[in-house]
Write a structure and sequence with these properties.
The complex is a heterodimer of chains A (1136) and B (211). With 1136 residues, chain A is of the alpha+beta class. Among the domains of chain A are: 1-178, no CATH class; 277-509, 3-Layer(aba) Sandwich (Dimethylsulfoxide Reductase, domain 2), CATH 3.40.228; 776-851, no CATH class; 871-1102, Beta Barrel (Barwin-like endoglucanases). Helix content of chain A is 28%, strand content 16%. In chain A, the strands form nine sheets. In chain A, strands 29, 30, 31, 32, 33, 36, 37, 38 and 39 form a nine-stranded mixed beta sheet that branches. In chain A, a hairpin with a 7-residue loop joins strand 19 and strand 20 (648-653). In chain A, helix 10 packs across helix 31, helix 16 (358-371) packs across helix 20 (420-430) and helix 16 (358-371) packs antiparallel against helix 21. Residues 1-6, 12-17 and 40-84 of chain A have low confidence and may be disordered. Chain B has one domain (5-210): TorD-like (Orthogonal Bundle). Chain B is built from twelve helices and one strand. In chain B, helix 10 (124-143) runs antiparallel to helix 11 and helix 11 (147-179) runs antiparallel to helix 12. The N and C termini of chain B lie close together (10 Å). The model of chain B has no long low-confidence stretch (mean pLDDT 91). Classes of the chains: A alpha+beta (1136), B mainly alpha (211).
Chain lengths: 1136, 211
């Protein structure tokens, strides 16, 4: 039909001119026209020319239409032309007409408002304070437009407010652009349900009852500080592990780990194992860096596994812009995803691959690259790169390992020679079984799609850019091998050389100085390494996890048998946590098996003092002792940098109101509490920030007299009687960046804190640009010393091994500092061999030899043996027609897990009830129609234990592949009360009134349920005359949405801890059926006792734990987040 | 003056119809207005015979087929904005420098972008609606028998077609026709293109006669 239509013949050529004559359409234009024009004839005639009208105060900086001139404000010109003059910085006073200007016909008609012209257009005076978005990890630049005109008249800080957040045109990463989440910062800031002051659980009430009293920050710090001091004072090893600081998306570079480290505690949990641990594991094995970093702009092929980079996930706003630029230059876009995402929808090729089988597809590409030639008969392998930069030599020299490959059936015999050519021949044989037929069957994908993908991959040469991150690697058991194998074809083609248009590495492109302000502290030193090891973060079953096993923290705390088992073997696993502090994180809601988290938090004997540093209400807050409100994007200090391009840039996040006040002459009473004081003075509330909070907590409450050795790391060098101030800290931290330091000195010659002031005024910095192939840079040598990673090594103490790697000894361990390639000493990659490691020797030594090269089972029998590499949702496990794999981990571009919940603007655009996508053929077979409520029951395939179910709305669509459902786990927020009363406070505090419906909850230790009870409108209407931030919330009677954004499916899931990478495998096997008459969309039912059994089975049946004879907890070279640990901490002695 | 009221009304209807089709997704009412009139339906010959139209209700047609096609043709794969076609860098000018703004301003017309759900005033739907507005206003001049005003309007229409719509919209409409996956938008693209071309000839002819 379409083909027929799309002939070039016109139906009208013959009948041109019959449009008007002899016909009367009998439908008036007005009936069908949309009517998008309005007239402005009620306003005076337009002035002939719109000119700059003199501003009353004579400021020359006035533009009828504020417009960024990209030429003037691009980073380069900005610095080169010295356009940036701090003393005349137009950002300090920027005039703009009020928004009503455009509605009323402009100043040309009305003039500017003044005493003589009261009907004129209002002219706002802004100070633009640069900051950085905090609503995802990308750290795009923002400018907070602080209205200062009123304040200048009244000198009352309460007249200062942020009118809007816009982009920061100087930011090298985001280049002035933001996504919806960036601009929504304003609605988060003035959220009518914002927590206005610290809250403490009401004395006598139980956690979860929702009874709160008001307290001060100092009340809370006194309680928390004394508890932490007890841990620090205690000599026993277990106390060092009874604190956990659990960080959601950190959005800062290195400050957090300083907190436990300065107290000598190993208390740190990141959220990585529910986010990116699979990708990190696979990437570490190749590179010993945990992330890659593509050069999108210069690529010829953009290869995305998932929609992540281009429409919702990591750095997507910045990445999408660069991907668009590459495509404009002719680059092709491939999106591999079982779901037709927005990215896949506009791609040149959509590759719907059955989830969890991506490894097979990557090895198929490797097979063809190794075994085929190009059209000129030349090899497709980039031998120049592979020979010099892959550790094939170590593999070929390791005959014992080669024998294992034979034993496992990967190759037929041990190669006779050990040359590079022998290596290529051997792996050509190893990957031969990954044929087109195999891939078509394994990945459930059409042959023509696979072949087209291969052609596009080859056509792009070495200019293929990718970002392997979430999607497959975090969805599955063995997800890490997806990342590991994904890089193989890139390596073979030379695309991993970190060159233009290819793939580089994260640590080349990032700046981390946020925790390096020690020069401003009394000690002048960074805290010492910690002599402890916390099994609650790094349990002995997961020595190679990336990173902390935080998603099973409550499970471990409540598993007495497990703790006793290991304590009998000589470990010292804590039976409880004394202090637990999530930061900007909502672990109850976002982690799998959420009822287990609630159980643990309710147990006051297991988690004695939980407190949340949280800018918003959250499900986790509900079960804490204290809720301490901290700042959002424009209300806090962080140095933040991300690897979004081949350069090193940073953002400086700042509290806009504080900066504006200080620039206008205001001073805090306490120099180290400026952010809190500024927010209180300006009426935002008792909102603080972590940098000042932790410094004050340590100096005033944990170690006030310095006797514990903690205080010196936080007290000011300038004035040791108090905590370090922001200006002092960041002056010292930014001093680590030579180019920044030099520019700051030049620009602020008379300042005490030039680095800080430069960043305060610019909010961003580009330290180094165009970073390509840094592994080929010569190893620095001064005199008779090599310099690597900031250390000096005398040449005569450096040993070169048989493979050309330069080694030094440190703390009894060998470290590689460089590599000889073609007679030159180069810096090399970050690995032990200084090359990309096709063969991960250390991984083989750490109990997993059969997986130390990229590999994937080739038949059902191998899938049983190599179960660690087989996804828990493999099609082998789908037996009945209503059994499906559920793709749960696609991100929604308008939401973040925790902080966006009550942003009015984001909520309004995110009301789609997060349906379950089901392929139209599957839906037809099961007689499921659009809008039907379906019951989705999750079943674990290792144990065949059922977890429970949730009820969701089905949407049949061809945008998900047959056999695979899609339902994002980023939705389904809930609350148990609409508002809370605070004794002595005259207003109720609303709870997530714009973003989460009211639910009924039951839980009895075994089974938990949630049922939606009431939408938003009733409670919100009752509070529409909000007591706080009314000016920004005049539209609360206009909440048309009910807030139900799908079911809380995270709680239904059992934990699926990958036995190697440790990540939760998010994808689920589901059995679906139509919902019953009593079921409503949003319901969940969870047997969390069953989920506990699943947790134990995955741990006990699949892992290879530490055992007697093991000397270390984990390879010391392998990255470990959180506090730095001493050799003593790493050392272990397991007794049988 | 060799112009009839019927001609003016028909032009007005066709500009309104095509602008509405290009501007936002269809709704029941709009589909009915096409289907209830045999002459209008005849302008959509493939749509008239489209099997799916007979198989499904308008609601289902809209949700499963028409809206999907519209999204593809106006948001995902094609860019229905004049500046995208006329600027060297292919960027949409959404600010004050958009070339059609001064013309709209001259007639005291303002585009309600949020209602049109477009990012700038040079969207094909808006430009077509502007033509509709001009035709509709011209009708008043016709009723007042004001030949000078009619000539003036025809000249403006000719100028707008020549300098704007015909300068770029054919490129978009040819692509739209090729990319379309539903009979409605396929026919709609062809109708719009052919109508604009014939209308340009018509306007020139009339102005020639009025010399």
């Amino acid at each position: 039909m379409v083909k027929k239509m799309n002939s070039n013949e016109s139906s009208f050529f013959e009948s041109r001119r019959t449009f008007l004559k002899g016909t009367s359409y009998a439908v008036a234009g007005a009936v069908v026209a949309k009517g998008v024009f309005s007239t402005v004839i009620d306003t005076p005639a337009m002035a002939d020319e719109l000119k700059a009208v003199p501003v009353p105060n004579g400021t020359p900086m006035y533009y009828p239409t504020p417009k960024w001139d990209p030429k003037q404000y691009t980073w380069k010109n900005f610095v080169d032309s010295y356009n940036f003059n701090p003393s005349e910085n137009i950002w300090n006073s920027f005039h703009e007409l009020d928004g009503a200007d455009w509605k009323r016909g402009g100043i040309g008609r009305n003039g500017i408002e003044s005493e003589e012209n009261p009907d004129g257009i209002k002219l706002n005076e802004y100070m633009l304070v640069p900051t950085a978005c905090s609503n995802c990890e990308a750290s795009c630049g923002l400018t907070a437009w602080v209205e200062i005109g009123e304040f200048k008249k009244t000198n009352d800080p309460k007249d200062l407010y942020v009118r809007k957040y816009m982009g920061n045109p100087m930011h090298p990463g985001s280049r002035g652009r933001n996504c919806a989440k960036g601009y929504a910062t304003q609605s988060q800031m003035y959220d009518p349900d914002r927590i206005p002051f610290p809250l403490k659980k009401a004395p006598g009430s139980k956690r979860g009852e929702g009874k709160w009293i008001r307290c001060t920050w100092d009340d809370a710090m006194k309680d928390i500080g004394s508890k932490l001091a007890e841990l620090v004072k205690s000599d026993d090893e277990v106390s060092k592990n009874m604190f956990i600081y659990q960080v959601g998306r950190p959005n800062e570079n290195g400050f957090g780990p300083r907190v436990p480290m300065s107290m000598g505690l190993d208390g740190w949990d990141s959220h990585t194992n529910i986010c990116s641990a699979g990708a990190r594991e696979g990437t570490i094995q190749w590179t010993n860096d945990d992330r890659n970093s593509p050069d999108w702009t210069n690529a010829k092929l953009i290869f995305l596994q998932s929609s992540h980079a281009a429409d919702a996930g990591h750095y997507f706003q910045q990445a999408a812009g660069r991907i668009a630029e590459a495509r404009k230059k002719g680059a092709k876009l491939v999106v591999m995803d079982p779901r037709l995402s927005n990215s896949a929808g506009i791609a040149d090729l959509w590759v719907p691959c059955y989830p969890g089988t991506e490894t097979a597809l990557y090895l198929y590409l490797a097979n063809r690259i190794l075994n085929e030639k190009d059209i000129n008969g030349n090899d497709l392998v980039n031998h120049n790169f592979v020979k010099n930069w892959v550790n094939w030599d170590r593999l070929m020299a390791n005959k014992e390992y080669l024998k294992l490959l034979v034993e496992k059936g990967y190759i037929k015999s041990v190669p006779a020679g050990d040359s590079y050519e022998d290596f290529i021949k051997m792996i050509s044989e190893m990957y031969q079984p990954y044929t087109l037929d195999f891939v078509v069957e394994e990945c459930k994908i059409e042959a023509r799609t696979v072949e087209k993908l291969y052609d596009m991959f080859i056509d792009a040469g070495a200019r293929v850019a990718t970002y392997i991150w979430r999607a497959g690697p975090i969805g599955h058991r063995g997800g890490w091998m997806i990342a590991r194998s994904a890089f193989l074809p890139f390596v073979l083609r030379g695309a991993m050389a970190g060159d233009k248009g290819g793939v580089g590495l994260h640590h080349w492109h990032v700046i981390s100085v946020n925790g390096k302000g020690e020069a401003a502290t009394e000690s002048g030193e960074h805290p010492e390494k910690v002599d402890a090891w916390n099994e609650l973060a790094w349990p002995p079953e997961y020595p190679l996890s990336t990173y902390e096993m935080s998603h099973i923290l409550p499970h471990m705390l409540l598993d007495d048998e497990w703790r006793e088992k290991w304590n009998k073997k000589g470990l010292n696993v804590p039976e409880k946590l004394a202090v637990y502090c999530p930061r900007m994180y909502n672990p109850v809601w976002i982690n799998p098996d959420g009822f287990r988290w609630i159980e643990a938090l309710k147990r006051e004997d297991k988690i004695e003092l939980p407190f949340n540093l949280s800018p918003t209400w959250s499900e986790t807050n509900w079960y804490c002792e204290y809720i301490l409100p901290v700042g959002l994007a424009g209300e806090r200090h962080d140095q933040h940098s991300e690897a979004t391009q081949p350069s090193r840039w940073l953002s400086f996040r700042q509290p806009a109101l504080r900066v504006a006040l200080e620039k206008l002459g205001w001073k805090p009473k306490h120099p180290a509490r400026g952010t809190l004081e500024a927010h209180m003075a300006s009426g935002l509330g008792e909102i603080w920030e972590e940098v000042e909070f932790w410094a004050n907590l340590m100096t005033d409450y944990v170690d006030p007299d310095g006797s514990l050795g903690v205080r010196k790391y936080w007290a000011s060098k300038k004035d040791p009687s108090r905590a370090v101030s922001i200006a002092e800290w960041y002056q010292a931290a930014f001093d680590n960046l030579p180019n920044l330091r030099e520019t700051a000195k030049k620009k602020y010659p008379n300042s005490e804190f030039p680095n800080y002031e430069l960043m305060r005024d610019m909010g961003t910095w580009l330290e180094e640009d165009n970073i390509y192939r840094p592994q080929e840079r010569a190893l620095k040598k001064e005199g008779d010393k090599y310099i690597a990673h900031g250390h000096e090594y005398p040449v005569d103490e450096v040993e070169k091994d048989e493979f050309g790697t330069l080694l030094v000894e440190h703390e009894g361990e060998k470290h590689a500092i460089g590599i000889e390639v073609d007679g030159e000493i180069l810096q090399g990659f970050h690995t032990l061999s200084k090359k990309l490691e096709f063969f991960s020797e250390w991984f083989a030594e750490w109990k997993w030899p059969e997986y130390a090269v990229p590999i994937y089972p080739r038949n059902k029998e191998e899938r049983k043996k190599m179960i660690h590499l087989v996804t828990q949702v493999h099609h082998d496990y789908m037996e009945k027609e209503n059994e499906f794999a559920v793709n749960t981990i696609f991100r929604l571009p308008y939401n973040i897990h925790t902080r966006s919940v009550n942003s009015k603007h984001l909520m309004e655009i995110s009301q789609n009830h997060n349906p379950v996508w089901i392929n139209t053929d599957d839906a037809k077979r099961l007689n499921i129609k659009q809008g039907d409520a379906i019951k989705v029951t999750y079943v674990d395939t290792l144990t065949n234990i059922e977890s429970g179910y949730f009820i969701a709305m089905a949407v049949p669509t061809e945008a998900t592949m047959p056999g695979v459902l899609a339902n994002s786990h980023h939705a389904g927020r809930w609350k148990l009360k609409n508002a809370v009363d605070i004794p002595g406070f005259s207003h109720q505090l609303g709870v997530m009134g714009l973003g989460a419906p009211l639910y009924d909850m039951t839980m009895d230790g075994k089974v938990g349920t949630l049922k939606p009870k009431e939408g938003l409108d009733k409670a919100m209407l009752a509070r529409r005359d909000t007591w706080q931030f009314k000016k920004y919330n005049k539209d609360l009677d206009n909440i048309w949405w009910d807030g139900l954004s799908g079911a809380w499916q995270n709680a239904v899931m059992a934990t699926h801890s990958d036995p190697i990478a440790g990540n939760h495998g998010w994808h689920q096997k589901a059995i679906i059926e139509k919902a019953g008459p009593d079921d409503t969309i949003g319901d969940i039912y969870v047997n969390y006792e069953n989920n506990f059994k699943v947790f134990q089975a995955w741990r006990d049946k699949l892992t290879r734990p530490l055992q007697a004879g093991d000397k270390l907890r984990r390879p010391m070279h392998m990255p470990r987040t959180g506090p730095k640990i001493s050799k003593k901490g790493y050392t272990v002695n397991i007794t049988e | 003056m060799n112009i009839t009221l019927e001609e003016i009304e028909n032009r007005s209807t066709l500009y309104a119809l095509t602008s509405r089709l290009m501007m936002t997704e269809v709704d029941e009412e709009f589909l009915k207005s096409i289907e209830s009139n045999a002459d209008i339906l005849a302008l959509f010959p493939n749509y008239k015979e489209w099997e799916k139209r007979k198989e499904f209700s308008n609601k289902i047609l809209k949700e499963r087929y028409l809206d999907v096609d519209f999204t593809n043709l106006s948001l995902l794969h094609l860019v229905p904005y004049e500046t995208f076609y006329t600027r060297d860098d292919q960027m949409i000018e959404s600010g004050g420098d958009n070339p059609v703004l001064s013309i709209y301003d001259a007639f005291d017309f303002k585009v309600k972008l949020e209602e049109a759900r477009v990012v700038s005033p040079d969207h094909i739907g808006v430009e077509l609606e502007f033509m509709y507005m001009l035709c509709d206003t011209m009708k008043k001049a016709y009723e007042a028998n004001d030949e000078d005003a009619i000539r003036e309007f025809l000249m403006v229409q000719r100028g707008f077609l020549k300098d704007h719509l015909l300068n770029w919209a054919p490129m978009y409409l040819i692509n739209m026709k090729r990319e379309s996956r539903t009979a409605l938008y396929h026919d709609g693209a062809e109708l719009t293109l052919e109508f604009m071309l014939s209308d340009y000839e018509y306007v020139n002819e009339k102005l020639e006669e009025m010399k």
